[in-house]
Amino acid sequence: xxxxxxxxxxxxxxxxxxxxxxxxxxxxxxxxxxxxxxxxxxxxxxxxxxxxxxxxxxxxxxxxxxxxxxxxxxxxxxxxxxxxxxxxxxxxxxxxxxxxxxxxxxxxxxxxxxxxxxxxxxxxxxxxxxxxxxxxxxxxxxxxxxxxxxxxxxxxxxxxxxxxxxxxxxxxxxxxxxxxxxxxxxxxxxxxxxxxxxxxxxxxxxxxxxxxxxxxxxxxxxxxxxxxxxxxxxxxxxxxx
Length: 241
Hints:
Radius of gyration: 20 Å
Number of domains: 2
CATH class of the largest domain: Mainly Alpha
Number of helices: 11
Distance between the termini: 27 Å
CATH architecture of the largest domain: Up-down Bundle
CATH superfamily of the largest domain: GntR ligand-binding domain-like
Low-confidence stretches: 4-12
Strand order of the largest sheet: 1-2
């Protein structure tokens, strides 16, 4: 068989439960069953109807809230945003495609966000932030040295840096990127064994710069830490052009 044909065949993409829930909510809006301003059923009812766990429903709703497509009132519930149906449909379509195909775009976005975040964290961190950062850093080291998967601990270290910025918008943006990054890094086996062990020293350099409240040193340490995966993303993006 012609090799070019084989290379042109892509693996079948299986949608995650979160993507399926988002897609079904989209269909309800486009069909007119849910209109802008309408209230969504509770998480419990949705999880029963979707026949899936409430955690998947919650993640789907959080993503739709992040993009402004749903609005939540703590006293009364979650509502469809007051946008036109065409705008909502287009944005949900972009969101579904984003979750499926843009791993390297996720890396690119994360890179630029984290360089800003680590500088702010160094300037604004509290003693409590330092304590939490050190705990998460040590958790990563213990798992790595015990030859256990430490991808989630790595990402947790970065989310705690984001929270130390004292900027809820930056923190929310980075928190939004983390689940898809963890999933894709694990599935694509992006981080090799040597890279994980190298990250121990890199985390310590980032932590020490934040501890010293040296923003420029913190940025340099973060840039070094993200350099390998950054170069990988840029090469992949270039290959697609």
